[in-house]
Specification:
Elements lengths: L1 E8 L4 E5 L4 E16 L1 E12 L13 E8 L4 E9 L8 H15 L8 E6 L3 E6 L3 E4 L3 H6 L6 E3 L6 E4 L11 E6 L17 E4 L7 E5 L6 E4 L6 E11 L13 E8 L10
Antiparallel strand pairs: 1-17, 2-3, 3-16, 4-14, 4-15, 4-17, 5-6, 5-9, 7-8, 8-11, 9-10, 12-13, 12-16
């Protein structure tokens, strides 16, 4: 077996059109390999350098969406569905996020005179909804469940009392604890995670927006995939950078670089027939 390194930079790639973000960017790109490599057995991620410039609240993965259904029998409102979005932004303060969310909800329920619905921080790490509605149904979303910490459910109380709903989990503004480097044109049997999301290499996100992420191969962190197709030729790499939920990311078109380690046979594969 032979080993070699190939150093790649998105600045050398041709950007693909992203149907979700509606544009061309370096997080969806194709990079040609000047000298194609045959008879590949394994590919390892050796290093990666990436400026981080994406928001924690983003519309492609709908983490800016908050929706619920309410009934206020005292005011004559039943099963009213409310769906609001907040601006994409890097919210590094929970009060800033809640202010944007409360403003959007206030605008959405203004026609339902007398209805109140306010989110606030409780006991430092929890979020509370205080409303005069007697029934609230919280619907699943990244913002609802993973960022704010609510459990999607139906909550109810007597007509003359305020309904108070408090999260069972801590809120978390930094839910992107890793991102995905997905190489779409590898013939590999190991390019998904346990939930079936597209994943070639997992990139731990151990820095914050505005910094450069760097990871390197080590004894404690090594990622290698096997190539199962004996006829596979590595002549180009079609790359996508995705978030942990499998959605594309707008990284501000900040180019990134990485190095792959290739293990291959010098001799071509010989298929034996009986």
């Amino acid at each position: 077996m032979l080993k070699t390194l190939i150093h790649l930079d998105s600045i050398d790639g041709i950007h693909n059109y992203d149907t979700i973000l509606k544009g061309y960017h370096c997080y969806n790109t194709n990079i040609n390999i000047n000298k194609p490599i045959r008879n590949i057995k394994e590919i390892s991620l050796k290093s990666l350098e990436m400026p981080i410039f994406f928001n924690n609240i983003r519309s492609p993965n709908r983490s800016n969406l908050f929706n619920f259904t309410f009934s206020n029998s005292a005011l004559g409102f039943y099963n009213i569905s409310i769906s609001v979005t907040i601006p994409e932004f890097n919210y590094n303060n929970i009060n800033t996020l809640l202010s944007a969310l409360n403003n959007s909800i206030s605008s959405a329920i203004i026609t339902y005179h007398g209805v109140t619905f306010i989110l606030s921080v409780t006991n430092t790490y929890y979020i509370t909804i205080n409303t005069n509605c007697n029934i609230i149904i919280l619907n699943d979303s990244i913002l609802m469940n993973y960022i704010l910490g609510f459990v999607s459910n139906t909550y109810s109380i007597g007509v003359l009392s305020n309904l108070i709903i408090t999260t069972t989990n801590f809120y978390c503004l930094n839910i992107d604890n890793y991102i995905i480097l997905y190489i779409t044109n590898l013939n590999s049997g190991s390019d998904t995670n346990v939930n079936g999301r597209l994943l070639t290499f997992k990139i731990p996100l151990n820095t914050i927006t505005g910094n450069i992420l760097y990871i390197g191969d080590s004894n404690t962190f090594n990622q290698t995939i096997s190539i199962t197709d004996p006829y596979y030729i590595l002549s180009s790499l079609n790359l996508m950078i995705l978030d942990r939920f499998g959605f594309p990311i707008n990284g501000g078109n900040a180019n990134f670089s990485f190095t792959l380690g290739i293990t291959y046979d010098k001799q071509p594969n010989i298929i034996k027939y009986k």
